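User: Hi! I'm working on a homework problem where we have to compare a predicted structure to a textbook description. Could you give me the structure for the chain below?
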Amino acid sequence: SKYCFHRWETGEWSSCSATCGVGLMTRTVACAHQPSRNSNHTAVLKDEDCPKPKPSPPCGKQDCLPQWVTTDWSQCSVTCGNGIQSLQAICRKQGENGRYWTVDPKNCSLISKPDRVRPCSLKWRVDAWSPCSATCGGGTQTRSVRCMKGPHGRSRQAENRQCLGTGRRPSNTRMCNLLPCTRWCRDSTRYCEKVRQLELCPLPQFKSRCCYSCRNT
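Assistant: Happy to help. Predicted structure tokens:
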């Protein structure tokens, strides 16, 4: 037979391409010719010169073990002051198609669950009040009110809703200089008559600058 000394010569298997699921191992496969049984010489031939079928890589399946996957930090353990946050994790498994899905945490009971905590705090931070918009007759003051998260010295701004548990949000506006303007009340700009005509006196910025012209409005 022409195949007596034609044979497939194979190399060593490579490492598996996956630790679970369906993986692949590769090796070199060549059609070789040996002139005689006792010959140490071989020549590489075309694949069609060797018997069929050509050796192929093995295919195997092995279930992937579930594993813990960290997701996000939990809410702070306190609504004000200093507390802690813990790192949340879910038990996840990979299927033969490479996709992941969440399974019962009991499936990960033999694997150590990530256990990490960090300090946290939530509180309102208020800036100083701005100068009053009027010297008399009623003006307004404003200030910045922010929700801050994190330990002192390393805090960062967070969404206001995260600080709602700390109590009512401090006001960012208030009335000031409510006493009525007296005889010393005077206009500080020459456009006050125009302000009165255009009925702009109720606006704090004009009421203070045009105190005399706007005194009866």
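For your comparison, note the following. The first strand starts at residue 6 and ends at 10. Residues 181-217 form one domain. Good luck with the assignment!
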